[in-house]
Design goal:
6-stranded antiparallel beta sheet; two-stranded antiparallel ribbon; 8 strands
């Protein structure tokens, strides 16, 4: 496993062993992805880059904390219900989701398109909400919590355009190391940045017959990204001309809704 660079640019040197243990425990939880319900200590060690002895100690702690459950027959672990509880708390407590979801739903129903809201996590984008109303059925179903590659998608490229330069540089370096045809992709990403600056949105078609447009939405010092997508055989240019005004209007409506909401803590 290739270790990811530290994307928390606010981290300070000299972190205590207790903090390192916490970080390693979180890496254990991160190792669980769709399709991997049960993971043993060996698989967790491979996915996290941690030693088996460290993984064994951490999984015991996480079981005791209620974050993992042990399957004694398979001698492996699964995520515990408490993890889902944390996700529910995040979704119900998000002022951005409260403000955005009704407007996203209205647009998706009215235009019969897919509308999503995502946020960055390391080198991926995570859907916070995904409302699917496109007329044509796509080959994949996108749901809340699903991850997509940052460097390939309109979501990720819109985020990169708005991200602080040091973070963007780290991410671009990571992508350059793992992508074979990096020069072509780098050109596409930088064109997306230019589109964000000049038009307010960018477009990509990283999956066959799916065109997606995205626009950054900065709230409370966090960069979220809105997107609209549709399964189509039409060109990116044609779909952009059709859907860009609706996407930009949606972003502006959400910003206005957030402004008139009561401040937190009032």
């Amino acid at each position: 496993m290739t270790e990811l660079p530290d994307f928390n640019l606010d981290n300070k040197p000299g972190r205590s062993p207790a903090n390192r243990s916490l970080e390693r425990g979180i890496e254990i939880l991160r190792a669980f992805r769709p399709g991997s319900e049960l993971l043993g200590n060996g698989e967790l060690a491979e996915r996290t880059g941690l030693s088996k002895s460290t993984v064994s100690r951490l999984t015991q702690t996480l079981v005791g904390a209620g974050m993992l459950q042990i399957d004694s027959i398979e001698r492996a672990y699964r995520l515990a219900p408490a993890v889902l509880s944390l996700s529910h708390a995040m979704r119900t407590g998000s002022r951005v989701l409260h403000a955005a979801t009704p407007h996203m739903l209205e647009l998706a129903q009215r235009r019969r398109i897919n509308v999503g809201l995502a946020a960055p996590d390391r080198d991926e984008m995570v859907y916070l909400e995904s409302i699917r109303y496109a007329k044509r059925v796509a080959l994949r179903r996108v749901v809340s919590g699903q991850r997509v590659p940052m460097e390939l998608t309109s979501l990720g490229r819109a985020y990169l355009a708005a991200a602080p330069q040091p973070r963007r540089a780290k991410l671009m370096e990571l992508f350059s190391q793992r992508r074979t045809h990096w020069r072509k992709m780098e050109t596409e990403i930088k064109q997306a940045w230019a589109d964000i600056r000049s038009k307010g949105y960018c477009a990509a078609a990283w999956q066959p017959e799916v065109v997606a447009l995205a626009a950054p939405l900065e709230v409370d010092d966090v960069i979220y990204v809105l997107n609209v997508s549709i399964s189509t055989e039409e060109s990116i240019t044609a779909i952009s001309r059709e859907l860009a005004p609706a996407l930009l209007e949606l972003a502006q409506t959400i910003r206005h809704t957030l402004k008139i909401q009561m401040p937190r803590g009032s």
